[in-house]
Specification:
alpha+beta, 5-stranded antiparallel beta sheet, 4-stranded antiparallel beta sheet
């Protein structure tokens, strides 16, 4: 290992012989390297310790712009791995001191990695979000005398806007409950995530449903058709379908973190950062773990 560098670990999979897409690049600008060990394979790249060692990493995890860039690269590498195998994604910013540290990580989570690969092979994740997207969002209003003859008329218009937003929320909530129940019947598993902040996602409207579904790859067409059939053609409610993704939400416990990831960082792993979102952005809330 070059002085001043660590190994960033993206995912664990079975060893494979197929070529990764030529355009995939890891954080160091090179194709991800592969470390094989006792029937498992970790996809890694070199990263500077000045950014990814324990103390600087904790500071960087509060920089959403920096974190989003890392998350996009993390997701791109895992998406490439999904074209040739069944990757088990690791938490965002999982780093090890050296190749021996990577091997210890594989050994410490071997049973869970192997179980996850067996359970998830041939399956993909689809994301479904429902938004209350009022056609009359709150905004600064011109002075009442410029828009209405009286203050009463101005208040009437403001009340109408509020009622429109309330109706959008009600419709979005009703749709979300019915849609989630229906899609859970069509998928092998479903998971509800906390609503996503518009500040992080950049999406318009208020996120009411943020769900993920585990679907056999060869049943994806039917699942997508079911979502589209249930998507209303009306103002005020919007349904967003994303995927197929590697099954981020189903590799581990309730927090969506990687199955097989150590309960505490193994010897050689200085830190484990936040979970990566399926859309390449960070999930809200830290999942940092201390260096052992």
């Amino acid at each position: 290992m070059t002085d001043g560098q660590l190994l960033y670990v993206y995912a664990v999979t079975r060893p494979f012989t197929a070529a990764l897409p030529v355009e995939v690049r890891a954080l160091d600008g090179e194709p991800p390297a592969l470390i094989e060990h006792r029937g498992l394979c970790a996809a890694v790249s070199r990263v500077p310790a000045a950014q990814f060692d324990a103390a600087p990493l904790r500071a960087h995890l509060e920089d959403l712009d920096w974190l989003a860039g890392i998350a996009r690269n993390h997701q791109a590498v895992i998406a490439a791995l999904a074209t040739v195998g069944c990757p088990v994604p690791l938490r965002l910013a999982t780093v090890c001191r050296d190749e021996d540290g990577v091997r210890r990580l594989l050994d410490s989570g071997r049973a869970r990695f192997e179980s996850a690969i067996e359970r998830l092979d041939g399956r993909v994740e689809w994301g479904v979000k429902v938004y209350a997207d009022s056609s009359a969002p709150e905004r600064a209003e011109p002075a009442p005398e410029l828009t209405a003859a009286t203050g009463r008329e101005y208040l009437r218009r403001r009340l109408g806007q509020r009622q429109t937003r309330d109706r959008s929320w009600q419709r979005a909530g009703t749709l979300s409950r019915a849609l989630h129940a229906d899609l859970c019947e069509r998928a092998e598993a479903g998971r509800l995530h906390p609503p996503q902040s518009g500040r992080l996602s950049g999406a318009s409207g208020e996120n009411v449903l943020n769900a993920a579904y585990l679907v056999p790859r060869d049943h994806s067409d039917e699942f997508v058709a079911a979502v589209r059939d249930r998507t209303p053609q009306e103002a005020g409610v919007r349904v967003e379908l994303t995927g197929p993704w590697a099954p981020y939400s189903f590799v581990g416990g309730a927090d969506g973190s990687a199955d097989g990831g150590p309960d505490s960082a193994p010897d050689g792993a200085p830190d484990v950062g936040r979970d990566v979102g399926r859309d390449g952005g960070p999930r809200r809330g830290p999942s940092e773990q201390e260096e052992s």
